């Protein structure tokens, strides 16, 4: 189960990094892109460590039509993602995003 959570966290980090890299509205330098990605990953890991859905909302799309597929399930809509992943799964003592 621990391995599945780690895969979920790593997959989410990759998704966040790719989302930032492809969502640039104006061209940025490699250094600017790297800084933005690092900041987003830092926010994500803080959200995981704190099991904080409000902090997680800064890196996830929070609309009702969003979907989050991971090795242990499939959540639909931000409310379910926040309840099932952020609050429940991430709050377990054995979890860590680092």
Automatic annotation (TrEMBL):
Gene3D superfamilies: 3.10.450.50. InterPro entries: NTF2-like_dom_sf (IPR032710). It comes from the Bacteria. Residues 1-28 form the signal peptide. Keywords: Signal. This is Nuclear transport factor 2 family protein.
């Amino acid at each position: 189960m621990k391995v599945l959570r780690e895969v979920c966290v790593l997959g989410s980090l990759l998704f966040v990094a790719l989302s930032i890299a492809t969502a640039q509205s104006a061209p940025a330098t490699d250094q600017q892109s790297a800084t933005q990605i690092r900041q987003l990953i830092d926010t994500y890991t803080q959200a995981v460590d704190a099991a904080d859905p409000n902090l997680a909302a800064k890196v996830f799309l929070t609309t009702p039509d969003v979907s989050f597929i991971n090795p242990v399930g499939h959540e639909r809509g931000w409310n379910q993602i926040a309840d099932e992943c952020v609050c429940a799964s991430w709050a377990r003592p054995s979890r860590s995003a680092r």
